[in-house]
Amino acid sequence: MEPSAIPQIFAPILAALFAYLIGSLSFAVIVSRLMNLNDPRSYGSGNPGATNVLRSGNKIAAALTLLLDGLKAYVPLWCVQTYGAAWGLDGGTVAAVALAVFLGHVFPVFFRFKGGKGVATAIGASFGIHPVLGVATGLTWLTIAYFFRYSSLAALVAAVFTPVYYQLCDGVVWRSEPGVALALSLMAVLLLWRHAANIRRLVRGTEPRIGQKS
Q1: Is residue 214 included in any domain, yes or no?
Q2: Which of 79, 87, 60, 91 is CA-nearest to residue 178?
């Protein structure tokens, strides 16, 4: 075995590990601390995410949380897509990195494995996989959120449709990778699971709308 081949063997594992650690940065908590706001886990839904930070009344903090939670998924995937070929990284690594950064957000090692629901991170990952997929996912979220004013409902619809968009555009915009399709499907399932309480409130009609304090 050539010495240069040794790091290439471990590159996919290191990429996924790095993505998980980046995903474990809970920016809802970090931004709130830096801006001297209450811990988002202590009010509203208790979820460390942009929607709950918005309930603090600070729109800038919510926007920063949304942006950073998305970027922490987009940047590792962009790096793999752009520079991965030199390290022998393929679609399997893209899938592993996407899923790892999402798992990091939901189960962050830096915050006792109690993280957010992963909506912004999932959208960021879809942009990292392909910009068209990201736009489709983001527009789905925005459309549902605009007309129904429920962040959770928008997240659920976007989560379900993202793997569908990925398969529908196979051979048209991109060449579908089985690993990426599986990763997107697993992320959708986890998003649905993380929104179980929201689904119950939506059925009962007690789910708070976007911007509503609770």
Answers
A1: no
A2: 91
